[in-house]
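Usage example:
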Amino acid sequence: MTRADRLERRRAFGARVRALRETRGFSQETLAECAGIHRTYVGSVERGERNVALDNIHALADALGVSVRELFDK
Amino acid sequence: MTRADRLERRRAFGARVRALRETRGFSQETLAECAGIHRTYVGSVERGERNVALDNIHALADALGVSVRELFDK
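Running the assembly step on the lines above writes:
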């Protein structure tokens, strides 16, 4: 897996989080509060800048009301 | 999400990695080499001790020949 692959997959994850958040009509602030993580962190996740780990992946899925599987396109 | 929830989900992830690895007849060493990560790290992931992040989640899925979704039970 190349660095480009990693960045592309981080971006895909972030784009999915953003799309689900917007579908729910949540602001980044609301999602951050529901997930118990910082608002600026949510922004950087959505921009694909973060190597998000399991605990926060689960927290985001819970806050968005989806299963973890739904945060990945395959 | 409580600390117990987080630990339970890390354990569930690790158990799934182990089950898929064993189904393929891979040793921890083989999986580690294929995924480009350290053998002792694979062991600690399988024991549920690690808050594994996106890059390594993808590397493990690729090495196991599964989609990322298959690493999660829901």
